[in-house]
Amino acid sequence: MRNLILASSSSYRRELLSKLHLRFESCAPHINEEAFPGEAAGDLASRLAREKALALADRYPDHLIIGSDQVAECRGTLLGKPGTKERAIEQLSQSSGHRVNFHTGLCLVDTRDMSHVTACETYSVYFRDLSSEEITRYVELDQPLDCAGSLKSEGLGITLFEKMEGSDPNTLIGLPLIRLVELLRQKGVNPLAG
Q1: CATH of the domain at 14
Q2: pLDDT category of residue 27 using cuts at 50, 70 and 90
Q3: d(CA 162, CA 80)
Q4: Which residues lie closer than 8 Å to 106 by C-beta, 6 or more apart?
Q5: Which pLDDT belongs to residue 194?
């Protein structure tokens, strides 16, 4: 079995990867996560996922390194992690009544030969019209301050939506497991193999 590294400090990504019953270690990469001028959300998510995985490559020879990053966008505006209650309320007010696309970049680096594959999965949520009271209450209860777009769909965030669209709901949480399993199997790692 190949050694796996999750290039992330995200508890959400660790929890998702744990679902696959594979042994792995987590290590936080330190990269600049700012967008380039005019960089599209999907391109940014893909670039950051790749940079995260490659940032750890020298430290982990003979490993498979998983990098992932998520960028939310609403009507052309990038929505990062809010960091504060006020910014979360502002982001959710902006999203109210609109579609928000969550672009989750994924990169798998094989440090045996430094080959890598990068993909980007998109999951869309359609917000219902939210009152300011609902938004404030949601932020107080779910505390989504470390989540792109200020929501946790796996928590109370589900109450904010009219509908959701995408091929893998894990993408919305931050790690597209269907695509990841496909990439891992190409490297001989199958969660269902004995």
Answers
A1: 3.90.950.10
A2: very high
A3: 22
A4: 49, 66, 67, 68, 118, 119, 120, 121, 175, 176, 179, 180, 183
A5: 65
Instruction: Render pLDDT for 101-155 as a digit per residue (tens, 0 to 9).
Output: 999 999 999 999 999 999 999 999 999 999 999 999 999 999 999 999 999 998 8
Tell me if 156 is assigned to some domain: yes
| φ and ψ of 73, to 5 deg | -145, 140
| Catalytic residue list | 69
* Contact assessment for residue 115 and residue 108, using Cβ atoms and an 8 Å cutoff: no
Domain hosting 153: range is: 3-186
Residue of 36, 96, 110, 28 whose CA lies nearest to 71: 36
Query: Does the pLDDT value for residue 156 go beyond 90?
Result: yes
Q: Answer yes or no: is 182 within a domain.
A: yes
pLDDT at 190 over 70: yes
The beta-carbon contacts of 177-182 under 8 Å, at least 24 apart in sequence, are: 177/16, 177/17, 177/19, 177/20, 179/106, 179/119, 179/121, 180/17, 180/20, 180/66, 180/106, 180/108, 181/20
